[in-house]
Amino acid sequence: MPQALEAKTKVSSCSVDMSPASHRIFAYDLYQDQCEIIPGTMSLPALEKKGDIILGGLFSLHDMVVEPSLSFTSTPPSTQCTRFNFRTFRWMQTMIFAIEEINRKGNLLPNITLGYKIYDSCSTPHQALKAVLELRGTENNSAGNTHQQGVCHESIPAVIGDGGSTQSLVVAHFLGVFHVPQVSYFSSCACLSDKNKFPAFLRTMPSDFFQVDALLQLVKHFGWTWVGVIAGDDDYGRGGANIFVNEVTKLGACVALHEIIPKNRAQSTISSIVSNIQSSGVWVILVFAVEQDAAALFDEVLRMELAGIQWLASEAWSTAAILSTPRKYHHILQGSMGFAIRRADIPGLRDFLLRLNPLSSDASNDPFLAPFWEEVFQCSLGVEAEDQKYNTEGNPPCSGTEELGSIANIYSDVSQLRISYNVYNAVYALAHAIKAMRSCVKGKGPFLQQACPDMDSIKPWQLLHYIKQVKYFNTFGDETKFDGNGDPRAMYDLVNWQLKPNGKMDFVTVGKFDETTAASHHKLQIQEENILWAGNQTKVPLSVCSNVCPPGTRKAIRPNFPICCHDCVVCAAGEISNQTDAIECIQCLPEFWSSAEKTACIPKQMEFLSFSDTMGIILMVISLTGIFSTCFVAFIFYCHRSTPIVRANNSELSFLLLLSLTLCFLCSLIFISQPSKLSCLLRHTAFGITFVLCISCILGKTIVVLIAFKATLPGSHVIKWFGPLQQRIIITCCTLVQVIICTVWLVVAPPMPQKLMPRDSPIVILLCDKGSHLAYALVLGYIGLLAFLCLVLAFLARKLPDNFNEARIITFSMIIFCAVWIAFIPAYISSPGKYSTVTEVFAILASSYGLLGCIFAPKCYIILLRPEKNTRKHLMSKTSTSKRF
Predict the structure, then answer these.
(1) Hey, which bits of 68-152 come out as E strands?
(2) How many C-beta atoms lie closer than 10 Å to residue 226's C-beta?
(3) Is the pLDDT of residue 751 over 60?
(4) Which residue, of 70, 127, 262, 319, has the greatest Cβ tally within 10 A?
(5) Which residues cross the membrane (predicted)?
(6) Which pLDDT tens digit goes with each residue over 300-344?
(7) Cα–Cα distance between 340 and 214 in angstroms, integer?
(8) Other beta carbons within 10 Å of 563
(9) For the chain, first and last CA: distance in Å?
């Protein structure tokens, strides 16, 4: 098996399963194996410049590798890299620019010259591993590109690179074993922050953890709850996308689809991804992938004519020229948004980039200049036979006098120096670490016995210690330092892709994200008025599985659907929700009820028998009519008090009965008002006492009628025991018993106002709590007892002479009275709310009208309409006739 493939296999296995100690043993063996390469084996091309301290560099100058066909007997040929990347070539030139700037100025590292040795990792892990093995362990033979068998050197104290996270993982595993500091400028995988696995890894590129945090803040800010995620099939894409998916669900959002772009970019697979987008109903999609994978996706989006999607870009392609420059992507990517790392304008860099020329004296030492030049100008340079692999068949020859400044391309475009700025900072971070090493005071060093590092032979692990402590402000005012995980301060620009009238896609900064801000809601600052959305719209696109539930409703999860798919259910009566997308409705307090919109709790309507409602007005009119009728009867009796029919009916008791009936009608009005402490005390006590007074008067009249006829029998002296004084005593004693009952009631458990607040009703029922149901039963029972006694006595006196038979009238009135109050009991118990009070008032009025009508109506009829019967002769005529029988 070829050694390169063996290396790839070993590193992959050790990165997963092997312990740190095994890592060291394996890495050392691999290192020794690489030193014993067979003579004549071709090494990788490198761009090299001598210096006192050599910094290694890894850049993916090509996007693909053409793997050779291998057999067990053939000698493995060199790997061929294809698809030259102008942007990465600019990053490499930025590293050279920074090193030469440091050497030229001399104030940072006086008397020290930095050199470099740069390899092309070809965007593949095993090519990156080959490169780092050569950086770490070998030097080229001065005679050519052959290794000196068995000769190994440790001349590279630090490595800048690689760009891709997948390549950096392999390199970091290897360099971490030897504690060689590695500073990446573009690897953002959050997995690289694990210092247990990658102790020597640092970067000037923020971790994807912070980028995901920024994306989460963006999704939360615009209220997107139905998002799609498409990732590249590498550590960068899968790692970042998985973090995003896990965290976005914690915000209550849902992932409509989660797809992977395969590395072979098969059209059938990508076509299936686009079809899933169309069927999902999602309008906001995050593409967490490198620019090449994103381009493959958007090619298929164009072919299937999918439009109107709001694309969210990861920083790998948020400012990618290969997507923004071709006009074919403009109508689908216009309005896209993404986070890009901070940019800077590096003075002198553009002139430095344009200095290159294949005819210069340094060109022969640059193995990457020829393929770059041929790719830029689409021509073929006359190169040696062994370098014919760089030629492009069919292209015209290059003269070497072409001007780079005459062609506008990604390489010469310095308007978006973001990753280049990271490369620039990585070089300066290492330079500051070397400066700190050089500034060590003897006897006060950080190592064993306070020793300082030997500057004549810098050890990588010593440089690693110092670079971890680096902290400085560069010429642009930005602070450069590394946290405990080797990560820099995370600051991003929120860029919006906006198509200008001239047809150029412009990256407009519409916000900032700074993870160092203490308050999480202040980390992301957005200028919404400057944003242009997908489809050239000015309104925020809506991407939800279900519409927002307005106030007054709550979310109800649909069975067998994601949590973001819900129905909006109106809050039940007595419940409200005063915010959008409420999880549950809030129960109003007992004295409150929900408004018609179910958005606020309003005081419940007070319900009581009042003078303003219809029922109260009717009862009040009936009560007043009764009062006026009673007063009218009293007036008639008073005007005809000397007539036989008035005198014969015991005028004193009649007037007292009329007074008690007037009080009965009056006490009914106490029930028609809002219950108060005073009204509750008076209601049932006044009713009980006045009715007992009324029944007592009727009882007295019944006894008088019965005794009056008994006294006419020969030898009877009973009439003298039932004179006016005795009658008053009977009435007083009967009434006094009720007064005592009511007094005890008011002292022990007085009636008080009460609010009945049923949960399922929009009203508060105002009632008088009786305090003691036993006392109320005694009051009614005592009234019933007197009424029953009157009924019995009147029944006994039913055969008295007709013209003077008041007992018959009393009997009929008591029957009506008892019937009313017997019917009152079940009606009162079953009547809800204020209608129980209505029932009680109706019983009072009905029984009062029954007494008034039955007892006094016949007499008033004779007095007013049949005055000829209001004579002593007429009243006594039937009596005489009766005696004869």
Answers:
(1) 80-84, 114-120
(2) 21
(3) yes
(4) 127
(5) 615-639, 651-673, 685-709, 729-748, 774-797, 809-829, 841-864
(6) 999 999 988 999 999 989 988 888 887 889 989 999 999 998 889
(7) 11
(8) 14
(9) 150
